[in-house]
Amino acid sequence: MNVCIVGTGYVGLTTAAVLAELGHQVYCVDQNHDKIEQLNRGYIPIYEPNLKEIIEKNRDRLTFTNGLDLGIKHASIVIICVGTPSLTDGRTDLTYIQSAIDHLALHIDSYKTIIIKSTVPPGTTEQLYIQLLEKGVPNHLFSIVANPEFLREGSAIFDMLHADKIVIGLRPDDQRSLPIMKSLYAGISCPYVITSLTGAEMIKYASNAFLATKISFINEMARICDAVGANIHDVAKGIGYDPRIGPHFLQAGLGYGGSCFPKDVKSLEQVAHSQKITPHLLQAVQLINDSQVNLYIQKLQQAVNHLSDQTIAVLGIAFKPNTDDTRHSPAEHLIRKLSEAGCIVRAYDPKAKLDSSHQPNVTQTDTLQEAVEGADILIIATDWQEFQQLNWREIKARMNGPIVLDARNCLRRQDIEQWGLQYIGVGCG
Ligand SMILES: NC(=O)c1ccc[n+]([C@@H]2O[C@H](COP(=O)([O-])OP(=O)(O)OC[C@H]3O[C@@H](n4cnc5c(N)ncnc54)[C@H](O)[C@@H]3O)[C@@H](O)[C@H]2O)c1
Ligand SMILES: O=c1ccn([C@@H]2O[C@H](COP(=O)(O)OP(=O)(O)O[C@H]3O[C@H](CO)[C@@H](O)[C@H](O)[C@H]3O)[C@@H](O)[C@H]2O)c(=O)[nH]1
C-alpha cells in the first residue's frame, strides 16, 4: 500500500520505518525543512535503538519530503502523527493537527483513509471529520479513523512490531476502514480492539493515566517505606506476584517524565473538568509526581551540611534510558533545582544533550569519569544500563565525598557500600 505520514517525529519516523519493513511504500512529510534535509542525507535526527538500521534497510520504500501534496498524491492512506503538546492550562494544543487537516483538505481529490495516530482528547477525531466536511471535502472521498499509538521511546520499533493490541476507532457508518487497517498492519500479530472514535481516544488516555498512577502509587509507597523502615523493592516484588497487580511499572524513582505521561494526564484532567467531573485520582497522581524531585533534594539537604557547597555528578539527562529525549525529564528538572540551590553540577548522559538554558554552574561532560571527578555527591537520575555496571571502587577513588543517591533504584546497595560509600535509595533507606 502507499502511505503518507504527516509529522516525522518519534512516532511518525518509527511508524514509517515499521510500515516500510512490512512492505509498504511510505511518504514521510514534515513541515520542518532541516529535519527532512537531514533524513534525505541519511542522518536520523533522534536516537532510537534499531531505527537507523531499519530505515537504511528499507530506504527504497521511504521518501522524505516537505510537500504534503506529493505524499497525498501517491497515497490512499494518510497517517497524522504531529505533536499534541500541552497548553499552559493543561489542555491539549491542537494547532498542529488543525494545520495538518487544513492542508489535507486542500489536496484530497481521491478516496483517502485518514488515520489519527497523534494522542488527542476524546471527541477530537469526530470534530476533525466535521471540519473536513465544512472545508468542502465530500464524505465519499474520505474516512477518518482513530488509531492511537502505544509505543515506548527506547523500544519503539520492537513495541510496534510486537504490539500487544491495535486499537481502531471507527465512525458508526464506516464500513470501509477496518479491512484497510488490517491490510496496513498485516504482519503484526496481535488482538484488535474495535471501538468508536471516542472509545479509541479514551483507551489511549486511560492507558497512560493508569501507568502514571502505578508510578505515583509506588512512589507514595516508597515514602511510607522510608518512614516505617521497609524496603520498597521487597514491597514491589511482593505485590507484583499477584496477577491482579503485576510486576511492571512498579519502579520507584524520581517520577515519570517524557513527552506523554505528564501532558496526557494533565489533558485528561482538563477533559474531566470540562465535563464537571473532579478527577481526584489524576490530581493526586500529578501531585505526587510533581513533588518527587523536591523530596530528593530535601533528602540531600538532610544528608549534608550545606547543599550549596556541593559539587554534584548527575548521571542521566534523558527522561528514561535508551533515548536522547529530554522532554519533561525528571533528571533535567533535578539538575535545574540543584543549580538553583547553588550547587556545581556536572551532568553526563550517553545520548541526551542538556538544554542550553542552564546556568553557568551546570556543565555537561563528555565522559562519565569527568562528571564524577572530585564530586561530593553522585546521583543516578536515569537508569541507563551502563550506570548499573559501574566500577564502584574506581568511582570512590575519583569522588571527593561519600554520597551516592540512586534516584532510580537501579543499583545494588552492597555494591556501593562495600567501598565505604553512603547509599541513599528511594524507599529503601
Ligand atoms: N513520543 C512517543 O513516545 C509517543 C508515543 C505514542 C503516542 N505519541 C503521540 O504521538 C504524537 C506525536 O508525538 P511525537 O513524540 O512523535 O512528536 P514530535 O514532536 O517528535 O514530532 C512531531 C512532528 O510533527 C511535525 N509537524 C507538526 N505539524 C505539522 C504539519 N502540519 N505538517 C507536517 N508536519 C508537522 C513536527 O515538525 C515534528 O517533526 C503526539 O500526539 C504524542 O502524544 C507519542
Ligand atoms: O516503573 C516505572 C516505569 C516508568 N517510570 C518512568 O515513567 C516515564 C515514562 O516511561 P515509559 O512509559 O517507559 O516511556 P514513554 O516512552 O513515555 O512511554 C509511555 O508513553 C507513550 C506515549 O503516549 C505510550 O505510548 C507508552 O505506552 C507509555 O509507556 C519515564 O520517566 C520512566 O522513567 C518510572 O518511574 N517507573
UniProtKB/TrEMBL annotation:
It is an enzyme of class 1 (oxidoreductase). Its EC number is 1.1.1.22. Gene3D superfamilies: Cytochrome c1, transmembrane anchor, C-terminal (1.20.5.100), NAD(P)-binding Rossmann-like Domain (3.40.50.720). The keyword Iron does not apply. It comes from the Bacteria. It catalyses: UDP-alpha-D-glucose + 2 NAD(+) + H2O = UDP-alpha-D-glucuronate + 2 NADH + 3 H(+). SMART domains: UDPG_MGDP_dh_C. The keyword Iron does not apply. SUPFAM superfamilies: 6-phosphogluconate dehydrogenase C-terminal domain-like, NAD(P)-binding Rossmann-fold domains, UDP-glucose/GDP-mannose dehydrogenase C-terminal domain. Pathway: Nucleotide-sugar biosynthesis; UDP-alpha-D-glucuronate biosynthesis; UDP-alpha-D-glucuronate from UDP-alpha-D-glucose: step 1/1. Residues 313-413 form the UDP-glucose/GDP-mannose dehydrogenase C-terminal domain. It holds the Pfam family UDPG_MGDP_dh_N. Keywords: NAD, Oxidoreductase. Belongs to the UDP-glucose/GDP-mannose dehydrogenase family. This is UDP-glucose 6-dehydrogenase. It comes from Anoxybacteroides rupiense.
